[in-house]
Amino acid sequence: MKVFKKIASFVMALAIAVTAFLATPAITAEAAGSVAIGGVLISDGNVVVSSKGTASSDDGLYHLIASDVNQSAPVGVDVAQSPVSAAASFAAPLGYNTEASLLFKKFTVCVVSGGALKPVSNSMFITNPEALGSTKIARTENGKKGLLADASSSNMGMRTLAQLGAKQATVTIELSRISNGRGTPYVYNGKSYNFNTAFISAYDNLIGRLSAQGVQVSMIIVCDQAAPGFFMSPYAADGIGQHTYYGLNATTTEGAETLAAAASFLANRYSGFSLFGMTAKVDNFIIGNEVNAWRQWNYMNCGNNLAVYTQEYANAFRLCYNAIKSVNANANVYTCIDHSWNASASGLHSSRSFLTQFNNCIASQGNIDWRLAFHAYNYPLTNNMAWAPTDKIQRNQNTKYISVYNIDVLTDFLSQPAFLSPTGAVRTVKLSEQGYTSSAGQEAQAVSIVYAIMVANNNSHIDGIILAREKDDPHIEMPQGLANGLLDYSNHAKVSYEMYKNAESPETIAKASGMAGVDLNTLLAPR
């Protein structure tokens, strides 16, 4: 019976992989050939691959080469062979969490020609790492309204989140904090790693307190300048100390292995870590911060070359995606861009061009269920009237910037067939960071906050809106004239405090409409 089950599931996986040909993207120039891989799936401890098309081979065989993310076939390991056929199939042991693991490999069909292996197909990664992950880790889905919490020692209880009715929050993990130190061991793919107990314990406490209040946590993973060198892309080496965050390293073997181990560790740790009667859980992982703004927020000195830069980022994203989903099948994994929809400048790709290129990179090498974290700030940042269009914020695809006012431009863009998820769904958007200053008036800030929450609640493709922030930031934002907190730095509540607390009530919406001088309901574009 066990043998029958394995054969049956193997056949089923092959059938699913074959149907993927219907949606197989055009073969990229890197992997042009006469054979097309239609799917790479995990099934019963194996990697199952199907291909179509023919190519001559000196030995009459197709060779399935498994390459590291930073390699191109024929460099790699010959993991399976199949007789030359118009419809070939391969199976190789996955070897999950062993030195021989294929979870992060890129698969290419090669033939022997003139005594050497030659690629004849596109290259594709595993597209269902969630087949390994637990489906028993229930998501916390209590509402869309979120807030970047004040996590200072005076507010570590985060009691205000419960009082304010916030149901989502973000936590940023700078890789230096968890990796510069020892005390928390983790073995992954046969190698031992050690994470910083002091900082891990602090995150345990923070995430546990948020989770205990029914708050869904999204973790942002970034590489800061103090992170160990193996986390940082070699393309970033010339800019250390000059930028905020740096590209994650999927370029070297050590970097790729360590990044995958760190992502797996975080997914494991926060699949329900218990402490002091609390359970610390992370439902969502955001890989990088505003990565289209490459010079400041994801520095790599290949950034000017959109194709090269995006492929480097996509490689790191896929490593994290596979590591996370193979632990927690219910986790969502997001890329992250800013509001510069059609605006580009030195060090900045328009978010539209980056998103298009990123989707192409992922789709051409195996479509996965990536999501989008978006920062729907106004333009300029000091404009605190989120409900009002400007010449640069319009409801059409030619708009320079996207704010909450015209967020439907983004979700309509993602509704195109080419951007749909593997199941045909529109990818959800998490508005993971946007804030409105009270510097030009507390009432305008309050109206903007209420309107932003209304917009999120009226767009089915938005899965959360996290406002920045609970308390004014005196270090970065206030020197720029931005006072985005619901509280000032002395902990005095602004008008926006109570308005945020009751943002979804008809009375508050009516009050905000009166302040704005227009019925805010008439400005919505439901989706």
Largest sheet: 9 strands, mixed
- Strand segment tally: 20
**Average pLDDT metric:** 91
Task: Label the overall shape.
Answer: globular
Q: Give the radius of gyration.
A: 24 Å
- Helix content range: 25-40%
For the record, give the distance between the C-alpha atoms at the N and C termini, rounded to a whole number. 49 Å
Computed structural class: alpha/beta
Oligomer kind: single chain
Fraction of residues in β-strands: 15-25%
Question: What does it look like?
Answer:
- The model is unreliable at 1-32 (pLDDT under 50).
- The termini are far apart.
- With 527 residues, the protein is α/β, with parallel strands linked by helices.
- Strands 8, 9, 12, 13, 16, 17, 18, 19 and 20 form a 9-stranded mixed sheet that branches.
- It contains 12 helices and 20 strands.
- InterPro entries: DUF5722, GH.
- Residues 1-31 form the signal peptide.
- Residues 139-516 form the DUF5722 domain.
- Keywords: Signal.
Question: Which keywords apply here?
Answer:
single chain, 527 residues, alpha/beta, 9-stranded mixed beta sheet, 4-stranded antiparallel beta sheet, disordered N terminus, DUF5722, signal
List the helices and strands and how they pair.
Elements: H1 2-19, E1 36-43, E2 46-52, E3 61-67, E4 77-83, E5 87-93, E6 106-113, E7 116-125, E8 145-147, H2 159-164, E9 168-174, H3 175-179, E10 183-188, E11 191-196, H4 197-212, E12 216-224, E13 245-246, H5 253-269, E14 271-275, E15 278-281, E16 284-287, H6 294-297, H7 306-325, E17 332-337, H8 351-364, E18 371-374, H9 407-414, E19 429-434, H10 442-457, E20 462-467, H11 495-501, H12 506-516
Parallel strand pairs: 8-20, 9-12, 12-16, 16-17, 17-18, 18-19, 19-20
Antiparallel strand pairs: 1-2, 2-5, 3-4, 3-6, 6-7, 10-11, 12-13, 14-15
Helix pairs in contact: 5-7, 7-8, 10-11, 10-12
